[in-house]
Amino acid sequence: xxxxxxAPAIASAEETYLAPDRFVAxxxxxxxxxxxxxxxxGALRDDVQHILGHAPDALRVRYWRxxxxxxxxxxxxxxxxxxxAGFVVEDNALRQLRVxxxxxxxxxxxxxDFFTRQFDGARLTPQQELxxxxxxxxxxxxxxxxxxxxxxxxxxxxxxxxxxx
Length: 165
Description:
Number of helices: 4
Strand content: 15-25%
Structural class: alpha+beta
Strand order of the largest sheet: 1-6-5-4-3-2
Shape: globular
Number of strands: 6
Radius of gyration: 17 Å
Distance between the termini: 73 Å
Helix content: 25-40%
């Protein structure tokens, strides 16, 4: 007698496209500055919650900064799993977005340059929205939305660190 398992398989495929420490090093031409910590308190915490649509998972965020350039490694859930993305912000505009680690079973198309290049030069409006339109990818809506939230977050956090210079 043959028994078949009909238990549903969990489709989760973690794929690392670029190690976060390598992304940081590349953003600073191989000479990254020491990491710094930004505490999410008061009005900043409120802004972060507004941007994400939920309370932040941590009370602090690590970042790297040299001059007008900052680098952020941020996570946000797409559908079920976190997406880890790296952001380079300079002079209050996004200079680069890279999907570093993707864990969802669908929507991985957001890692490609044709999608991430849409964010190049994006800035944050006073209403905490991106000033550029980002085209969706059919079948990847939740991942697209997650990356848009993270892009807004990186710009808001950069602005906060710039205010203290």
